[in-house]
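Section 5: illustrative case.
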């Protein structure tokens, strides 16, 4: 199916203004990912598909657009320095600060297929089991794509994906599912609350976060979108809270309330 210049421009404009994702030079990616879906679903042109989406922006065609165009690559213990920093520096601070409430608020803001939030929860379980009292270790994990969220909720992964995980964690937090797969135990799955959240839309959270993981998602956004997002996230964090971004990403700190701690780690002042 051929895509005209006008259709291509319309898709990049729609995706940029609704999801923040910049696909300016990504014609091959758009066609590669959408063409089969359009054919399978009986569309005759990209224009017809976009008309349908615009007439029902929360319908299944719009969801399919997001699911097809986002890149969901992730893995357990990705950028492990962040989890070590959380365990060694941040959690001991929270242990003192929140000793009365025993609550900690963490948000994995582009959680994809779940490896990031589950790594956070395993790190929390590992840390808090050595402490007295019952800490609430539930965390929030959000993504724009319903497809990855549904996958994440199941908590089932191929054994090859778990090779990076220490054997002790595998024993403690996973159970066999089939010859090739393992599943996270219910106690870990139940500690992640998965929700759809488009980072371009307003946030309404009850509690302010101690830690936000905003990793490997801003690569799709232009500078202004990134800047607005980072400020919006800052507003829903506690003073002294920590922000992790992807290790290849940079944060424009001008006019933000974040202090640079070390590469990819910031603290709200
Ligand atoms: C490469 S994955 C990153 C996963 C994980 N944070 C990590 O670092 O391994 C990027 C995720 O961002 C999500 N995403 C892209 N645009 C988004 C938006 N506007 N709002 C929320 N999530 C978005 C995608 O669906 C995808 O799952």
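Designed sequence:
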């Amino acid at each position: 199916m051929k895509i005209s210049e006008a259709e291509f421009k319309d898709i990049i404009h729609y995706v940029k203004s609704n999801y923040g994702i910049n696909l300016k030079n990504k014609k091959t990616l758009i066609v590669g990912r959408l063409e089969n879906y359009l054919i399978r679903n009986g569309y005759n042109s990209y224009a017809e598909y976009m008309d349908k989406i615009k007439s029902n922006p929360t319908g299944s065609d719009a969801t399919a657009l997001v699911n097809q165009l986002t890149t969901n690559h992730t893995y357990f213990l990705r950028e492990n320095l962040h989890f070590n920093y959380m365990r060694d520096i941040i959690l001991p601070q929270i242990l003192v600060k929140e000793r009365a409430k025993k609550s900690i608020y963490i948000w994995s803001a582009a959680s994809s297929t779940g490896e990031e939030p589950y790594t956070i929860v395993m790190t929390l379980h590992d840390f808090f089991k050595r402490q007295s009292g019952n800490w609430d270790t539930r965390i929030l994990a959000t993504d724009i794509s319903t497809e990855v969220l549904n996958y994440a909720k199941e908590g089932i992964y191929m054994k090859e994906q778990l090779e990076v995980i220490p054997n002790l964690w595998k024993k403690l937090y996973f159970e066999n599912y089939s010859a090739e797969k393992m599943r996270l135990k219910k106690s870990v799955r139940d500690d992640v609350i998965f929700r759809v959240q488009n980072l371009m839309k307003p946030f309404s959270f009850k509690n302010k976060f101690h830690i936000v993981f905003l990793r490997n998602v801003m690569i799709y956004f232009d500078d202004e979108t990134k800047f607005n997002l980072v400020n919006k996230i800052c507003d829903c964090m506690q003073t002294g809270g920590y922000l992790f971004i992807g290790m290849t990403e940079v944060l424009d700190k001008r006019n933000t309330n974040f202090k640079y701690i070390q590469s990819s780690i910031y603290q709200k002042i």
